[in-house]
Amino acid sequence: MVATNVREMRRVYDRKIKLPTALVQEIARTTTLAKSAWVQARAAAEFAQFAPYLEKLLDLKRQVADRIGYTTEPMTR
Prior knowledge:
The protein is mainly α. It has helices at residues 2-18, 21-44, 47-68.
């Protein structure tokens, strides 16, 4: 059990030091805006209203994957 806790703490720590604060803030900001855009787009049945937010979120998550690393395949672009 102790080994599991230490491993998890290490994973969280490694992630924190690999991601710059600006990137984490941009993900939070974009996620908030995207949720609002999704609600409006869904109500209007207009996916195009949400598409730019989805593209931005995918780009941000690719940046996270590039910084943290991956064990098999990177996210395709």
